[in-house]
């Protein structure tokens, strides 16, 4: 190899007279230049630097840094490959990618680090960029979009660079062309000939004043004025945006707040995106708030003289709610003010909406959207509203992909249950309305989902609890900028009170025998290791909980029973399969509807997830000669609303009961003609049950509402209910900002297929609640106190079964008290909101026994339900335990 010849240095460092390298002379005395250059250097003061202190194994010396990293290379001009977070804890340094949250390596580190320090981790070169606060690391803020800047409060907009407003005024370029025309050239087409046929008296009359004039008077009483932007584009002025009094006068306080929140979100005033999630519970008027928002955006703009913010709006909803949206627009705005185009099987000419001027709103079902999405792309959609948006569960959802293909930045999700199963679905909803706000899905899972779920486990360590709490707080803080959530409590002053009863029904002897036969069969044991067969077994047990006779009927999805089911049927006696008499739920329902029909004028809704179960209930009502209506998947869409209206407007002699399929009519229906509702079976997804329960407690209801949820005590129903509580606790923690995420350990959930035939309620045992099971309220914040005095009569009244101190095993009692205190953590407070009632106290009253009569009366007061109380007093009543909660 030919190399260049050696070239000597071009300069030689001069040497001093004593053959030493020349160095800068130290001044040893002051002179005239002492004021400019100090004569000597003082020794550096010893200053303690927390960042440079040696790292120990103590958590008090945890240090976190932002670093630059790159792979080892021999290149002359080296560049950095990316950013990362370095956590030095316990003498070990862990490197985590700040974009994906993925751990990149780990090494021993027991030396101080300062900005500029270099080190090596897992084959990568690092350079410390800066020090990161522990709070920022725990919150996960540093992992969002590669740094904390993405989650800082949005700076105040100033000058002409206000992105959201310039994005809102999409017609500026066109407007400039019109303004550039000479004034002497006026075409007839530039004038607006069409005028709204109905002149609204709410619009302010035009004046010759040069001052910007809003469409509606902001000084009128109860005027709903939107937030003004801080700046306007150059040459433009800001004008007030006021909700049309035609709608504003009907809005309640929480609805006025909701409209203002949505307006600020879609105008980009609250966060980096222009999307919003309205997560109000059912019955709070999400539809009316959305109509008020759309009507305001279609008629006004905060930039004076600019076209309206929105020209065309698309509403995507379940097919069963299309007519509901059309009626709501007609109810609040009429036919004269706005045109609503409904895309259905008969009306598929989408150009009438995209190209025409007669329609500003289009309502389409999720399924139909996929069919017409190509036609919608030809037009311009300014805003998309996804009703029941929790259906957009995954990024691969075809409806979501269809909406995203429209390239519409303003997106609104309406959902009473935005978090149904896990945080992954919640991320999908957030990324849909504000893409990229939380980074990539994989990074979100590592940064937020995994730490939060790990901290909710009973065996979580202190560090995991601290980290999970910080990540949860940060997620709540982020989502609160574009998500608004109000519970049904805000309707307490508008609606009558409601009472929820969780009714635990003890299985009948025949039902328990059929349950045990299935569990003891070899087929059942072999199927536990097979996922598909396990799901079939779950369906089998759910049918037994409703009625063993349902096993003999064909399933809703199959023409013939499966081979496994046919094998299991041979284990159950034919007399049980041929009759519904063994169903404990049906017996309780029989007593309840009989008491209700004979002693009151109220009506009832009965909900089930299965059409075969509705068939069984229908036979019961026919045998009792009770009138009823039915809505399930076989009911045509054009006949559903007439059924609802007939039930609401007629008395109980015409329609006493309404049989409803939860999957076909669980959302969007207002069944206010009934004041009682029974959920005959339970669903794994708590949102399904919550939506069904909200059908009667809505605007227009005049009577106190009673909600019953039937469970088989000790069976699969109760285990599903426990899983629901866990999911609802997670939703409350993130969506409602409640620090009470319920969670059960894996050991407690392993008995999913076990039948608990004890007299006590397993759910109450899991709580380890210290209450007397007589319906008295339990204070979650009150510490458990055990009196040491043998003469404490109050303790005897509260705990009738207390023993004398001399008879008590103190070690056992202390361990039990400690377990109770452990259980009374915020994880289980969701169930502690209920009163707990063992029904034996209701049936214990006998003549001449005053104490038992008092106990029975106290239980009746806690129930707040005379009909159910009379049912519980029946000698052959199958109800073993009740959890009750009243809003009154």
From TrEMBL:
<dbReference type="InterPro" id="IPR000330">
    <property type="entry name" value="SNF2_N"/>
</dbReference>
<keyword id="KW-0547">Nucleotide-binding</keyword>
<feature type="compositionally biased region" description="Polar residues">
    <location>
        <begin position="199"/>
        <end position="212"/>
    </location>
</feature>
<dbReference type="GO" id="GO:0005634">
    <property type="term" value="C:nucleus"/>
</dbReference>
<dbReference type="Pfam" id="PF00271">
    <property type="entry name" value="Helicase_C"/>
</dbReference>
<feature type="region of interest" description="Disordered">
    <location>
        <begin position="199"/>
        <end position="222"/>
    </location>
</feature>
<dbReference type="InterPro" id="IPR038718">
    <property type="entry name" value="SNF2-like_sf"/>
</dbReference>
<feature type="domain" description="Helicase C-terminal">
    <location>
        <begin position="592"/>
        <end position="750"/>
    </location>
</feature>
<dbReference type="GO" id="GO:0005524">
    <property type="term" value="F:ATP binding"/>
</dbReference>
<feature type="compositionally biased region" description="Low complexity">
    <location>
        <begin position="45"/>
        <end position="60"/>
    </location>
</feature>
<dbReference type="InterPro" id="IPR050496">
    <property type="entry name" value="SNF2_RAD54_helicase_repair"/>
</dbReference>
<keyword id="KW-0067">ATP-binding</keyword>
<dbReference type="Pfam" id="PF00176">
    <property type="entry name" value="SNF2-rel_dom"/>
</dbReference>
<dbReference type="GO" id="GO:0015616">
    <property type="term" value="F:DNA translocase activity"/>
</dbReference>
<dbReference type="GO" id="GO:0016787">
    <property type="term" value="F:hydrolase activity"/>
</dbReference>
<feature type="region of interest" description="Disordered">
    <location>
        <begin position="1"/>
        <end position="60"/>
    </location>
</feature>
<dbReference type="InterPro" id="IPR014001">
    <property type="entry name" value="Helicase_ATP-bd"/>
</dbReference>
<dbReference type="InterPro" id="IPR001650">
    <property type="entry name" value="Helicase_C-like"/>
</dbReference>
<dbReference type="InterPro" id="IPR049730">
    <property type="entry name" value="SNF2/RAD54-like_C"/>
</dbReference>
<dbReference type="GO" id="GO:0000724">
    <property type="term" value="P:double-strand break repair via homologous recombination"/>
</dbReference>
<feature type="domain" description="Helicase ATP-binding">
    <location>
        <begin position="267"/>
        <end position="436"/>
    </location>
</feature>
<dbReference type="InterPro" id="IPR027417">
    <property type="entry name" value="P-loop_NTPase"/>
</dbReference>
<protein>
    <recommendedName>
        <fullName>DNA repair and recombination protein RAD26</fullName>
    </recommendedName>
</protein>
<dbReference type="GO" id="GO:0007131">
    <property type="term" value="P:reciprocal meiotic recombination"/>
</dbReference>
<keyword id="KW-0378">Hydrolase</keyword>
């Amino acid at each position: 190899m030919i190399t260049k010849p050696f070239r000597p240095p071009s300069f030689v460092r001069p040497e001093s007279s004593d053959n030493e390298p020349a160095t800068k002379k130290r001044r040893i005395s002051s002179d005239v230049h002492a004021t400019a250059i100090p004569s000597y250097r003082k020794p550096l003061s010893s200053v303690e630097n927390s960042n440079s202190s040696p790292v120990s194994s103590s958590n008090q010396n945890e240090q976190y840094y932002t670093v630059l990293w790159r792979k080892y290379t021999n290149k002359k001009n080296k560049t950095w490959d990316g950013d990362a977070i370095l956590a030095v804890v316990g003498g070990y340094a862990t490197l985590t990618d700040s974009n994906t949250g993925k751990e990149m390596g780990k090494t021993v580190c027991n030396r101080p680090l300062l900005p500029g320090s270099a080190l090596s981790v897992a084959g990568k070169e690092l350079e410390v960029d800066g020090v990161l606060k522990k709070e920022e690391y725990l919150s996960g803020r540093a992992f969002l979009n590669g740094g904390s800047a993405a989650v800082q409060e949005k700076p105040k907009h100033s000058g002409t660079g206000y992105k959201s407003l310039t994005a809102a005024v999409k017609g500026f370029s066109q407007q400039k062309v019109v303004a550039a025309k000479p004034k002497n050239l006026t075409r007839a087409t530039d004038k607006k000939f069409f005028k709204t046929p109905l002149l609204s008296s709410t619009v302010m009359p035009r004046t010759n004043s040069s001052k910007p004039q809003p469409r509606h008077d902001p000084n009128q009483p109860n005027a709903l004025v939107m937030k003004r932007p801080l700046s306007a584009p150059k040459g433009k002025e800001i004008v007030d945006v006021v909700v049309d009094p035609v709608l504003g006068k009907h809005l309640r306080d929480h609805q006025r707040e909701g409209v203002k929140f949505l307006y600020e979100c879609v105008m980009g005033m609250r966060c980096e995106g222009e999307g919003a999630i309205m997560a109000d519970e059912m019955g709070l008027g999400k539809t009316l708030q959305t109509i008020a928002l759309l009507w305001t955006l279609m008629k006004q703009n905060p930039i004076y003289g600019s076209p309206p913010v929105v020209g065309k709006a698309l509403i995507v909803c379940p097919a069963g709610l299309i007519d509901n949206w059309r009626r709501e627009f007609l109810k609040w705005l009429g036919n004269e003010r706005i045109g609503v185009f409904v895309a259905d099987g008969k009306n598929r000419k989408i150009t009438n909406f995209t190209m025409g001027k007669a329609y500003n709103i289009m309502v389409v079902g999720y399924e139909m959207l996929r069919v017409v999405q190509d036609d919608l792309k030809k037009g311009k959609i300014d805003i998309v509203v996804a009703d029941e948006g929790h259906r957009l569960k995954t990024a691969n959802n075809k409806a979501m992909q269809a909406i995203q293909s429209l390239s519409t930045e303003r997106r609104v999700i309406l959902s009473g249950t935005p978090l149904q199963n896990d945080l992954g679905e919640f991320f999908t909803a957030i990324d849909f309305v504000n893409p990229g706000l939380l980074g990539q899905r994989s990074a979100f899972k590592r940064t937020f989902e995994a730490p939060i779920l790990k901290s909710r486990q009973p065996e979580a360590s202190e560090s995991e609890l601290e980290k999970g709490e910080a990540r949860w707080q940060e997620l709540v803080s982020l989502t609160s900028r574009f998500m608004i959530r109000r519970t049904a409590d805000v309707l307490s002053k508008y609606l009558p009170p409601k009472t929820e009863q969780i009714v635990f029904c003890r299985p009948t002897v025949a039902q328990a025998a059929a349950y045990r036969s299935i569990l003891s069969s070899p087929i059942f044991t072999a199927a536990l290791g097979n996922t598909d067969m396990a799901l079939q077994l779950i369906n089998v047990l759910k049918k037994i909980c409703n009625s063993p006779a349902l096993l003999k009927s064909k399933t809703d999805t199959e023409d013939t029973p499966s081979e496994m089911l046919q094998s299991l049927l041979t284990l159950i006696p034919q007399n049980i399969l041929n009759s519904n008499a063994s169903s404990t739920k049906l017996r309780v329902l029989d007593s309840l509807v009989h008491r209700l029909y004979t002693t009151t004028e109220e009506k009832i809704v009965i909900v089930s997830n299965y059409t075969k179960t509705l068939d069984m209930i229908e036979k019961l009502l026919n045998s009792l000669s009770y009138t009823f209506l039915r809505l399930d998947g076989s009911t045509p869409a054009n006949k559903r609303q007439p059924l609802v209206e007939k039930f609401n407007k007629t008395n109980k002699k015409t329609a006493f009961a309404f049989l409803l399929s939860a999957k076909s009519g669980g959302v969007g229906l207002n069944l206010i003609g009934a004041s009682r509702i029974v959920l005959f079976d339970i669903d794994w997804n708590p949102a399904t049950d919550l939506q069904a329960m909200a059908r009667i407690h809505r605007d227009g209801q005049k009577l106190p509402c009673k909600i019953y949820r039937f469970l088989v005590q000790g069976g699969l129903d109760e285990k599903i209910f426990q899983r629901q509580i866990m999911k609802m606790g997670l939703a409350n923690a993130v969506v409602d900002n409640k620090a009470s995420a319920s969670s059960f350990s894996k050991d407690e959930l392993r008995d999913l297929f076990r039948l608990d035939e004890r007299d006590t309620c397993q759910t109450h045992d899991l709580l380890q609640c210290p209450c007397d099971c007589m319906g008295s309220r339990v204070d979650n914040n009150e510490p458990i106190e055990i009196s040491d005095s043998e003469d404490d009569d109050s303790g005897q009244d509260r705990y009738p079964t207390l023993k004398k101190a001399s008879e008590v095993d103190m070690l056992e009692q202390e361990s039990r008290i400690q377990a109770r205190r452990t259980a009374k953590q915020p994880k289980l407070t969701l169930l502690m909101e209920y009163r707990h009632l063992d029904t034996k106290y209701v049936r214990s009253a006998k003549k001449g026994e005053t104490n038992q009569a008092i106990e029975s009366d106290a239980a009746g007061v806690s129930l707040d339900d005379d009909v159910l109380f009379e049912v519980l007093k029946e000698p052959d009543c199958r109800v073993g335990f009740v959890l009750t909660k009243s809003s009154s």
